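Hi L.,

As promised, Transcriptional regulator, AlpA family:
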Amino acid sequence: MRILSKRQLKELVLYAPQHIARLEKAGLFPMRVQLGPNRVGWVEAEVLDWLKQRLADRETPPDTPA
C-alpha cells in the first residue's frame, strides 16, 4: 500500500486543497489518513479508483443507465 502526500495528491488530481477538503466532507472523495499530529496522506489505490470512476462517468452518456 502506498500513501500519497498532499503534494503528490495535488499533482495527480489537479484540485486545490480546499476543494479536496470540501469533496471529502461531502463524501465524494477518499478520506485522508491521519499519519501523525501534523501529517496526513491518502491511500493511492483509493484515489486511483476515484479517478477511474471519473473516467468511466465521462464515457457513459448522461441519458444512458449505468
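Helices lie at 6-13, 17-25, 44-59.

Thanks again for sending the construct details.

K.
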